[in-house]
Amino acid sequence: MKTSRAPINTPAAALVFSAVLTQGPIARTDIARRTGLSSAAVTKAARPFIDAGYLQELPGLTVPAGGSGRPAVPLGIRADREFFVGVKLTADEVIGVLTDLTCRPVASAHRPLSSTSFEDVVADLGELVGQLRSDSRVCQGRTHRVGVAVSGDIDRLTGTVRYSPFLGWRGRPLAERLSRATGLQVTLENDVKALAVSEHLFGEGVGCPNFALVTVGTGIGSALVVNGSLVAGARGVAGEIGHIPVDRDGYDCHCGGAGCVETVASTQALVTASRTAVGVPALSLEEAVVLARCGDPRVLPLFERAGRAIGRGLASLANLVGPEKIIVSGEGLADFDLLDTTIRTTFDRQAFGAAECPLILRPLPFEEWARGAAAVAVHDLLNVSGASVSP
User: Quick one: pLDDT at residue 3?
Assistant: First the structure.
């Protein structure tokens, strides 16, 4: 196996490699048609990737060139050419995966946090990354990048956690410190945006240049892909659906506002409201869900209220951005049956042209959040040259 790194040093190289990664196996003529590059430019850009072992010709598999005509030998990805570590950081544990170039997990690990102090978390992350690399011999010498997904306000350019309410952090240079601890290049991203990158490159968003991802759980998060690019906004906080005000008389939110979607529809908000309604301070979310499914008049209206809040938030997002689809995911989907009808009814009533914007339910385990972090590292590889990559 050659040891040279991916030769992504021009926009054309990034476009060609991205097309094969997300849509391959694919003929050179189809790459030219989809990217707008000439056939000669595609061939010139592909050759260094073949020489470096990132792409391969697949003579045993032929596809129609340009959809018709004589079959062509397609290009495919050498998935084991490079490996990536993805890490999802929560308030009490670290979930990590080691993936190949197509973000297929080849190893995974969980590790409880020693504490939420910055130094302890950096140490825990470093040990988890080391464990994943040592547990899989196939990746030796071929792992150069780590993606880390954290809930909160993240500055991806500087690798800083500006604010994470669940960790209690402000202004922490996590990417720089973890890079120093592991010797690897580290990309830090908001966890919902990382999940959107994964969907864009390898999931529901492949071939869909305009979509939104919304997560329901401890927080209510969202990320936007517009014209094939993840929208960050001026300070990296674009798409914060959880902080759209939906209740003018609602509770104060940790963001400083009041009546936000999160204050009504997050799992913690539902637990708190259910405990108050039932008069049981130790009531769990699972117990509240059972009561609601039994039609308990003290609890069921709280879930209906949460569904209306989420539906209004989704409608606001659809009206402002006009996505082709909205993917709904997150750990809060465990009780989605209690929210589904109310969400869809509210969304259909409030969203302009809602029939043209389907809601797609995608329950995902925490390992998928870690895979999203790995996808961010892959995406970072594609943008080495600063090219705008639109699969």
Answer: 41
